[in-house]
């Protein structure tokens, strides 16, 4: 079946004439339309009328796009009721680049509202279910993208990661998720959550698929002044060994707070890495325990400003009222969900008069220290490795009443976001029958090296994805 | 005890719309008077996912202004977000500058500059009254054409000492900005807007009084009147033993009334933070060189150069601050070798010509600069009397032409020194024997009828001074 | 820690209406989160420079060249309330 192929394999098959792009698209379109995980908020009606050129590098392999990306004429709601029915007049650079490389839009995927959440329960369009266990969350905020790929209804998907929103759902659904170096991919058309942290990236079945998508996503964009692109072209990873590779295991992100089953899986992987020729040593990121605090100041502060534009004037939903003030406050009350309101409140407070220095100013300094911690670690090590998420997928509703415990889910992924460095999560075996993730982080712009190491580990781990299991069954 | 005398302490905040082709952070063309909402894009509408792209020319213009105002130019400058909600502000924040502005302290004339920074203008909000289309009984329409226009905000130190001073200094600033070519500086079209921070204190006191902010005055005349009215209001408050309240005020030029703009909202808390969508602006030596090369001669320097030509400071300033007069003057000087002295030409331009053309650009007048210079020369060489020269200038302004030819054709030339005048004076003395007698008796005021007689006979071509000299000589005085 | 009054003040700054119930929840939840966040007050950060951005690029400027604007009907297409030529809002002066 065409849907058994990884994206790299499918693209090769189409280019070799063994598979038609339309057949491939229709197979996935059918699956996406039949999706019962609530992974999609919109599915394309049909394959694009214009087939991609025969030599298009992505050869018509369709892609599911997180709803956070603007797509011209296609609903782009960012998981929020305030944007219900919103049809943007333009398309995000990253989506346009994938399309130009031959990857047509399969559907828009569900997500936590404005990418704020770690469970996808904060969507204005209902929670996404984890295909491994439908009573559990798929992680978030790119939960729809992760569920679509893990559930086999999309060959691959585009997500966004601000503090772990690609890596954590990838871990919880047993797929690969890559957050590239900040600035590698244009943010133009990606609805902003926290501008200095947001970064697009692939959620895929394999490390090679991530590499292939990144190759066509990355690049400086004149429409985004903070985009710089990568310094070298991304090549498909081929490494099988880790000889000479030094892995640093930060004490602060691998001990306390990690579920025993996740820790066991992590330690097995470290052993495997040694068997592949790597050396594994513990290291220190002394400020990592404060990363979450810094993150939960900086990200809400930026979001409180980024979401001010949702005011019922130019687009989106509005609650009519007699006065401007009432129109604003009711529109925003009805349009935003509880988590978005919480973060807007937190961020507004952190920036408000008298609190800026204590919160925002300090958080920016913690950010400096965390970047320095990583820089020091990378003097000794090629990569820093941690579990991606401290737990396996939790049950729907388990943490919705306790925002802080939800936030603590991000503690392994947030430090890399603050430092702006690339990090990838690969499937790391099961704990209690549920996937766990292994995170590798590299210095900025070292994506090729990172993908190579992840590829070698992936092969050695031999994880059987859900879509492979279901095919077998 | 005499009443306390107060002195005003005034600082100005001037917003200047920059004359770039496109907006501050997007490629929409600037427009004036185009149909509403025809110059917008995802960026200036603040659509989700859009990002700002700073306009290089706006930065360049900012540097030109900084250089013209002798500001310290920051090697690095960053943009901040100023957060507040208003329908004319599409993103819910204005991209502005906060603690790292493009230009630091400087000076223009006798007023110190505190800082100059760049930001984006708000959109236009038009009140339309009741509208059936929305729930609210009272509606406004937002037009985003103006939204995002580049603005330079120039903030002075509180060095302005009076309403007149404010108007005079703003004239200098406007000329300077016009010379730089960075703005239309047209208050009617809103490309120059001014707020004033006003306080008063007893003369001699060094402590500043409580200040009020007079907002958005849209003509130099209103600024002067507004400041004067606010200073008077504050004086009255203090004389009554009351306290000035720090607040934002609006001056209504129609009624001269000053009203508080205090809203019901909580005090502003703009929650400034560094704009994460933009990277810092580093001022490179290339950028500085380019700006320096583009810097024209500015009014202050021009005034100095005019003074070096021998002009009185007042005349030099008038010509330098009203650049079109200065240009006319310089063209006049170059006209030909028969031009009068620079001060004489300047006087004819600043006094007589301005009296005839008012605020119009003299370059558009029929009186060619060379003609006015030649006329000044003719007067200086006593070829025409000053009074007749004014008639010649009337003719030049109305019809153009050459002054020498006009004098010739109209017979306005001064009498040649060939004894003809002496004869006419003798005849006048004879015809006014009474007057002659009085003069002889020491009453020089009695000379009027005699001079009148001579002027009638000569059709004004006689030089009054020369007539007096001959009268004295003939009467043996 | 944050109290009820502060929550109301911040909600107003953020133009968020909160129900009585939401104010109560928000006060508790934010206080708990701030209790965790406040730990960064213990760090000695006096000599540390703030990081606003991890990218090292500077002077990304755009040439002053016009690009096409949106047709007006497209600009107005998503607005909840429009007049013939603009976006309709309740007048800021009213009420
Ligand atoms: Zn625009």
UniProtKB/TrEMBL annotation, chain A:
Catalysis: reaction(s): L-glutamyl-tRNA(Gln) + L-glutamine + ATP + H2O = L-glutaminyl-tRNA(Gln) + L-glutamate + ADP + phosphate + H(+)
Domain Amidase: 35-451
Alphabetized InterPro entries for the sequence: Amidase, Amidase_CS, Amidase_dom, AS_sf, GatA
Active site, per annotation: 66 (charge relay system), 141 (charge relay system), 165 (acyl-ester intermediate)
ATP-binding found in the keyword field: yes
Enzyme class: ligase
Pfam families assigned to the protein according to its UniProt record, in alphabetical order: Amidase
Family according to the record: Belongs to the amidase family. GatA subfamily.
HAMAP family in the record: GatA
Function (record text): Allows the formation of correctly charged Gln-tRNA(Gln) through the transamidation of misacylated Glu-tRNA(Gln) in organisms which lack glutaminyl-tRNA synthetase. The reaction takes place in the presence of glutamine and ATP through an activated gamma-phospho-Glu-tRNA(Gln).
Name of protein: Glutamyl-tRNA(Gln) amidotransferase subunit A
Record organism: Svornostia abyssi
Automatic annotation (TrEMBL), chain B:
InterPro entries assigned: Asn/Gln-tRNA_amidoTrfase_suB/E, Asn/Gln-tRNA_Trfase_suB/E_cat, Asn/Gln_amidotransferase, Asn/Gln_tRNA_amidoTrase-B-like, GatB, GatB_C_1, GatB_Yqey_C_2, Gln-tRNA_amidoTrfase_suB_CS
Main EC class the enzyme belongs to: ligase
Segments forming domain Asn/Gln amidotransferase: 327-475
PROSITE patterns for the chain: GATB (PS01234)
Pfam families: GatB_N (PF02934), GatB_Yqey (PF02637)
Keyword Nucleotide-binding attributed: yes
Record field: catalytic activity: L-glutamyl-tRNA(Gln) + L-glutamine + ATP + H2O = L-glutaminyl-tRNA(Gln) + L-glutamate + ADP + phosphate + H(+); L-aspartyl-tRNA(Asn) + L-glutamine + ATP + H2O = L-asparaginyl-tRNA(Asn) + L-glutamate + ADP + phosphate + 2 H(+)
EC number(s) reported in the record: 6.3.5.-
Keyword annotations of the record: ATP-binding, Ligase, Nucleotide-binding, Protein biosynthesis
Keyword set includes Protein biosynthesis: yes
Assembly and interaction partners: Heterotrimer of A, B and C subunits.
Protein's job: Allows the formation of correctly charged Asn-tRNA(Asn) or Gln-tRNA(Gln) through the transamidation of misacylated Asp-tRNA(Asn) or Glu-tRNA(Gln) in organisms which lack either or both of asparaginyl-tRNA or glutaminyl-tRNA synthetases. The reaction takes place in the presence of glutamine and ATP through an activated phospho-Asp-tRNA(Asn) or phospho-Glu-tRNA(Gln).
Family indicated by similarity: Belongs to the GatB/GatE family. GatB subfamily.
Protein name: Aspartyl/glutamyl-tRNA(Asn/Gln) amidotransferase subunit B
Organism annotation: Svornostia abyssi
UniProtKB/TrEMBL annotation, chain C:
Keywords: ATP-binding, Ligase, Nucleotide-binding, Protein biosynthesis
Species, as recorded: Svornostia abyssi
Catalytic activity entry: L-aspartyl-tRNA(Asn) + L-glutamine + ATP + H2O = L-asparaginyl-tRNA(Asn) + L-glutamate + ADP + phosphate + 2 H(+); L-glutamyl-tRNA(Gln) + L-glutamine + ATP + H2O = L-glutaminyl-tRNA(Gln) + L-glutamate + ADP + phosphate + H(+)
Annotated EC: 6.3.5.-
Protein name: Aspartyl/glutamyl-tRNA(Asn/Gln) amidotransferase subunit C
Self-association and partners: Heterotrimer of A, B and C subunits.
SUPFAM superfamilies: Glu-tRNAGln amidotransferase C subunit
Annotated gene: gatC
Family membership: Belongs to the GatC family.
Enzyme category, top tier: ligase
Job description of the protein: Allows the formation of correctly charged Asn-tRNA(Asn) or Gln-tRNA(Gln) through the transamidation of misacylated Asp-tRNA(Asn) or Glu-tRNA(Gln) in organisms which lack either or both of asparaginyl-tRNA or glutaminyl-tRNA synthetases. The reaction takes place in the presence of glutamine and ATP through an activated phospho-Asp-tRNA(Asn) or phospho-Glu-tRNA(Gln).
Top-level taxon: Bacteria
Pfam families: GatC
